Amino acid sequence: MKFKVQITECDNIIKFIIRHKFIKGNSKLTAIKKDNSIMICDINVRYNCKGIGTTLVKHLIQYAKDNHYNKITGWISSVDLDHIDRLKHFYGKFGFEISKSDDKDDPIRIYNLNLSI
Ligand SMILES: CC(C)(COP(=O)(O)OP(=O)(O)OC[C@H]1O[C@@H](n2cnc3c(N)ncnc32)[C@H](O)[C@@H]1OP(=O)(O)O)[C@@H](O)C(=O)NCCC(=O)NCCS
């Protein structure tokens, strides 16, 4: 299925939004731009496993390439451990390196995500 993505930017925050015609609420990816990298803050889709998340991340990667960023980062938190297999597959297929976090100040952060552009 093809989804139309709207991009909005305000200061260093960028959002990739997919609006659904007959469904209340949007699917979106929110990220923060800092120096040469973009950090994913949140990704939320209305329906899992329909290719919506893939479309959002592909747009983010294309945006990063077009605007000469050299890295996309993010993290997986403990609240998402119930679907960790899906997340590992999801980020892995774009080439994200997934490494255990040892950030003692942020125990909720379980894995770090890193993609070199
Ligand atoms: C992770 C998430 C954002 C992905 O969005 P999505 O629209 O479901 O993703 P897609 O449909 O594009 O892709 C899902 C992929 O996971 C795969 N998958 C589904 N269940 C799986 C499982 N149990 N194990 C491994 N892979 C699985 C699908 O086959 C698909 O892979 P494919 O494209 O190679 O066929 C969404 O599913 C989700 O979990 N949202 C909850 C919030 C969240 O976890 N946010 C991320 C915080 S880091």
UniProtKB/TrEMBL annotation:
Q: Where would I find the N-acetyltransferase domain in this sequence?
A: 1-116
What CDD domains does the entry give? Answer: NAT_SF (cd04301)
One example GO MF annotation: acyltransferase activity, transferring groups other than amino-acyl groups
InterPro entries, alphabetized: Acyl_CoA_acyltransferase, GNAT_dom
Q: What is this protein called?
A: GNAT family N-acetyltransferase
Species the sequence originates in:
Lacrimispora amygdalina
